[in-house]
Description:
Layout: H1 2-21, H2 30-33, E1 39-47, E2 52-61, E3 66-72, H3 85-101, E4 107-113, E5 116-122, E6 134-137, H4 144-156, E7 164-167, E8 170-174, H5 175-181, E9 184-185
Antiparallel strand pairs: 1-2, 2-3, 3-9, 4-5, 4-8, 5-6, 7-8
Helix pairs in contact: 4-5
Amino acid sequence: xxxxxxxxxxxxxxxxxxxxxxxxxxxxxxxxxxxxxxxxxxxxxxxxxxxxxxxxxxxxxxxxxxxxxxxxxxxxxxxxxxxxxxxxxxxxxxxxxxxxxxxxxxxxxxxxxxxxxxxxxxxxxxxxxxxxxxxxxxxxxxxxxxxxxxxxxxxxxxxxxxxxxxxxxxxxxxxxxxxxxxxxxxxxx
Length: 189
C-alpha cells in the first residue's frame, strides 16, 4: 500500500513539474505558438493619441521575427449593434488569419456592401469585394480608399517600391509587401 501511495505521489509530482515547465499556450500568445508562419491576432497596444490601450489587429511575421500592426480599433461607431472595438478586433483578426491560411489574403481592396464601404481580401487584382471576402465594414461616411492609403503610408517609410497596384478604378494593397515593409511594433504581453 505504501509503494502504491508513493508511486501516485511521484507521478503527480512529475506531472505538476512538467506542467510548470511546459505551460499550455493561450490565444494571446499565438505569435509564439507558430513562429514559422504569419499569424494574425488581436492584442491591446498603447495608443499615444488617446493615451490609452486599444485593441489592434497584429501580425507576427516570422521572416522578420517581429510584429506588424494592421489596424487599431478605437471607433465606437458599431458598438450600438454589438460590435465593440474589442469584438471587431477579435473577429477581423480571425478573418485575416482564415483568409491568409486559405491563400486568399494576397491583396486588400475596397468596395461596397449594402451601402456600406468595406475592405476585402482578394487573391488577384481582378477580384472585387463581395460578402465572401469581406474583412470589415467602415463607417458609412468613410472613404475606403483613404483607409488603404493609410495602410500604405505606414509601410512607405521602409520601402521605395510602390505598394499600390491598380486595376481599372480599384486600388489594391499587396499584403506580402506590407508585412515585409511596415515598421515592427513592440507589443507587451
